[in-house]
Amino acid sequence: MNRTADVVVIGGGVIGTSVAYFLSSAGADVVVVEKEEIAAGASGHGPGFFNAFGGDFSPGDHLAIGLESIRLIREHMPNLEQYQEEPNWFNDRPGLAPAFSEDALTHHQQMYAASGPQLEAAGAGAEWLDAAEIRAQEPLLGPDVLGGYLFPSVIQVDGWKLARMYMSAAQAEGARLERAEVTGLTWTDETATGVVLSDGSTISCHHVVVAMGSWTPAASVWLGFPLPMCNLKGQLHILQVPGGVDLKHHVIERIALMQYPNGDLLLAATPDPAPGGGLRPTDAYIRPLFEKHALPEDTTLLYETGLSRFPFLKDAEVVDDLAGGRPMSVDLLPMIGTTPAMSNVHIASGHGRKGIHLSAATGKLVSDLVLDGKTELALNVDAYSPRRFMPPKM
Ligand SMILES: Cc1cc2nc3c(=O)[nH]c(=O)nc-3n(C[C@H](O)[C@H](O)[C@H](O)COP(=O)(O)OP(=O)(O)OC[C@H]3O[C@@H](n4cnc5c(N)ncnc54)[C@H](O)[C@@H]3O)c2cc1C
Fold first, then answer.
1. Can you give the pTM of this predicted structure?
2. What is the rounded average pLDDT of the residues 74-88?
3. Angle, in degrees to the nearest 10, between helices 159-172 and 61-80
4. What are the structural domains of the chain?
């Protein structure tokens, strides 16, 4: 194998493969180095809802990159789907954000008052439905629903499918995949000259992209710059209901329920944001290590919450479950850009609960910054820069 490249991307999750896709489509010579396999990390566990409404995005720069990513994935869908390995990968349905308590109803309406104008300007606004209207739309909702927002279109794409499509599309443009663990960088002065692999060999390159998901803090050590992240546990369950059901919407509130085109249902966990922003730092969710097993106590909580919203789940059988750690920056915004340590080492990580959704905008943004040092995307690039974590001068 040729041991040089224009760009080495470390990590073959949905973020690294998207970066490789946009870079190689723009003509760059790219090597993706992945220690396990494509989508072996968080990307193999996420159902990939592209929902711009909810606690995952704050209005302003955060929501702007979410909306830009929805626009980009729709634009690139015709190209990416040439590389699909499974039919029905693009699960686009109307979305519902229902409220089951007065507190939730007030919270939803306050959130929409804050983010609605930005959503509507991007053509992604919603209509408020009262209790009777929302149950007429989705008869499978339980009788306690008080109302909610109806979004005309919410995309869902499994992270592992999307990562494999990005990688195949990148390979069609000449990108290469190397299975190895990166253990460090080589550098001269303040410029990286390559990456070191665990067998001691190196790949020389002009740029490095760190897309290591929950393992990104290792790069803090290589760079001598803080990349503060936590590993936010999440889990999901695949359910089947004897006789089948027809859930017409992606339903996303405290929990998410959706139906795959083959009829299977997916029930997923999202821990509550804490009042005033941030996340509740409970032992159940913030985990120091990447864990792939579902926690029985979370399964019970998830199932009971699901049942209180959707009474038909009493007949459901769990046929599979998946769990993974979500790479979450401490201020919940993704980290995209360089650090003062080395100007040709680009960070693309910390996307938390929205990495699949944000993959397209991240890939395009990193590609633009690597190749041109600027982007034409209508985004405030500085807002995502890891330089925001620059330690204060003592
Ligand atoms: C239960 C659950 C539900 C979710 N739901 C959604 C959702 O609905 N919508 C959404 O958008 N997102 C969702 N997510 C979040 C999403 O999955 C993540 O944000 C996203 O997958 C992160 O992608 P990544 O490429 O940064 O990390 P990863 O997918 O973890 O990829 C990092 C890769 O880097 C590799 N690596 C690490 N270190 C090295 C090294 N030194 N050398 C070589 N390779 C290395 C790892 O092996 C791994 O493959 C969910 C996640 C979970 C767990």
1. 0.95
2. 90
3. 60
4. 4-44+160-228+331-389 (3.50.50.60), 92-153+230-329 (3.30.9.10)
